[in-house]
Write a structure and sequence with these properties.
By secondary structure, this protein is α/β, with parallel strands linked by helices. The protein has 14 helices and 19 strands.
Length: 530
């Protein structure tokens, strides 16, 4: 088989949240053997790769995004042998395997942080970000933490503050120290040698901070209502997005270039310049792809989708985006956009058709192919610190992380035989189980058709995207020279005049009428130029 170093360009990756995919051991928590047992479902969709959220050794204060051993598998998920078995099975099924890398910060239980906090001198003393207090004892600046409160935590051992963008249990590494960079690259090499096909880089724009530690200014964008978190009130000019990041991305790319057909997708999150950062981070020999937050919010209109996609490619014609509508950190999109659809199934199909025809690569989140809804949870069912800290205005991320539902009538919908699972399985999620979606009109069947069409039509993977004239609520564009995509982003029927005749490749709640296409609520039509 010929090697394809560019397999990632136009690829579709299926995100697996390991705690919630499949429990093979009966403890109520998903694990690596469980994932391996269910990989046939993923391969059957027609995706190119899987992305595993963190499975590394961790005290789980932030569900694995607080790593205490970058080369170890947490016992809750299994062993390195289990990981190797998963990797082998995925490759046998034709699936690439991408693993999360949480480099910006570690757990406070990492041995290096224990050494770093012990004294101001020593081999690991400056591996994390430390600073003296101001003369009045207050933190060195006004930086805020995403999960609430200030971003500085006092440590009585060193009598200094350490910096944490997230929980106080997640101290930030000091990337200004070249030894930290070298060590992270060697950890990545460990997994490349083990055979992984690439990395999803968590918070890739958070690696470097301004070493002078100036205050972050207030957010210059005027908001209609007060921010829900102090973090959202600041413009994070100095605490992230530093120019030194670009040089480190080039070092990471050089490492991956030593291996065949590997890839990196970086999560770029910012409230002001994320599209520009995505372009900068994927231009030149840096990231292969940048994972976008742009479509993970409430906005849903033709103008919005046009503007963000055009902005990316206009600003970075050599860059490459990775689009997503849902993930483990946001409310599921079928729930988020429900006012724009007649019913959840129609909205799920429309969303699938749009996402899988956008120029760029795509990430699907587990359960998305079932049209899964956000789970409504009570406060005493939460595990996520974001929800616990900001309830009830912010309900946290647990609602999108509840277990995958396989068999509606089985205990815990086939996810686990345990008496209690780490998050509950509720009735609305059971109703959308895999075994309830055998019909040709199901959301699952539609995803399979869309993915098959994307594979069959090269234009839908790598063809350039050009928007065509359309009136709201219609979104219309070409992919390549010959494929035309038309979507109705509303719960009301509409008509759209086609620029030319075409052969229907896929239609959902839509039909041709001469030179027009009649689009029912959330209707979809994809055509090839006649």
């Amino acid at each position: 088989m010929m090697r394809d170093d560019n397999w990632w360009r136009g690829s579709v990756t299926y995100q697996i949240y390991p705690r919630s995919f499949m429990d093979a051991t009966g403890d109520g928590i998903g694990d690596l053997p469980g994932i391996t047992a269910r990989l046939d479902h993923v391969a059957g969709l027609g995706v190119d790769a899987i992305w595993l959220s963190p499975v590394f050794t961790s005290p789980m204060k932030d569900m694995g995004y607080d790593v205490s051993d970058y080369r170890g598998i947490d016992p809750v998920f299994g062993t390195l042998a289990d990981f190797d078995a998963l990797l082998a099975r995925a490759h046998a099924l034709g699936l690439k395997v991408i693993i999360d890398q949480v480099l910006s910060h570690s757990s406070d239980q990492h041995p290096f942080f224990t050494q770093s906090r012990a004294a101001r001198t020593g081999p690991k003393a400056d591996w994390y970000v430390w600073a003296d207090p101001k003369p009045d004892g207050s933190p060195p600046n006004n930086w805020q933490a995403i999960f609430g409160g200030g971003a500085w935590e006092w440590d009585s051992r060193r009598r200094q503050y350490y910096f944490h963008n997230f929980l106080k249990d997640q101290p930030d590494f000091n990337f200004h120290n070249p030894d930290v960079q070298d060590w992270h690259l060697e950890n990545m090499r460990f997994w490349l040698e083990r055979g992984v096909d690439g990395f999803r880089l968590d918070t890739v724009n958070f690696y470097f901070h301004d070493a002078r530690l100036p205050d972050d200014p207030a957010d210059p964008v005027r908001h209609d209502e007060p921010a829900r978190k102090p973090y959202d009130m600041q413009y994070h000019l100095h605490s992230k997005n530093q120019p030194e990041n670009l040089a480190f991305l080039q070092r990471m790319r050089a490492l991956l270039d030593e291996y065949d057909a590997r890839t990196m997708v970086g999560e770029v999150g910012d409230s002001h310049h994320s599209i520009d950062l995505m372009g900068a981070y994927t231009s030149g020999r840096r990231l292969h792809m940048a994972y976008s937050f742009e479509f993970l919010g409430p906005k849903f209109s033709p103008a919005f989708f046009r503007s963000r996609i055009a902005q990316f490619f206009d600003g970075a014609p050599e860059g490459w985006p990775c689009w997503a509508f849902s993930n483990h950190d946001v409310e599921r999109h079928v729930t988020r956009w429900r006012k724009h659809g007649t019913d959840s199934a129609a909205l799920a199909k429309l969303s699938a058709a749009m996402l899988l025809t956008f120029e760029g690569s795509v990430c699907l989140y587990q359960g998305e192919e079932l049209g899964q809804l956000e789970t409504e949870l009570e406060f005493d069912e939460l595990t996520d610190p974001d929800g616990i800290n900001f309830w009830p205005e912010i309900k946290g991320r647990d609602g999108c992380r509840t277990p995958m539902t396989w068999e509606a009538d089985a205990p815990n919908a086939g996810f686990s035989v345990a008496n209690r699972t780490w998050l509950p399985v509720k009735a609305p999620q059971r109703e959308r189980s895999v075994d309830r979606q055998g019909g040709e009109d199901s959301v699952l069947a539609f995803y399979r058709r869309m993915l098959a069409l994307r594979r069959a039509e090269p234009a839908l993977r790598t063809g350039k995207m050009a928007f065509t004239d359309s009136a709201d609520p219609v979104l219309a564009y070409r992919r390549g020279k010959d494929v035309l995509c038309v979507f109705n982003l509303s719960p009301d029927a509409v008509e759209h005049t086609l620029p030319e005749a075409g052969e229907v490749l896929l239609a959902e709640a839509a039909e041709l009428d001469g030179g027009k296409v009649r689009l029912g609520p959330n209707g979809v039509m994809i055509l090839r130029k006649a």
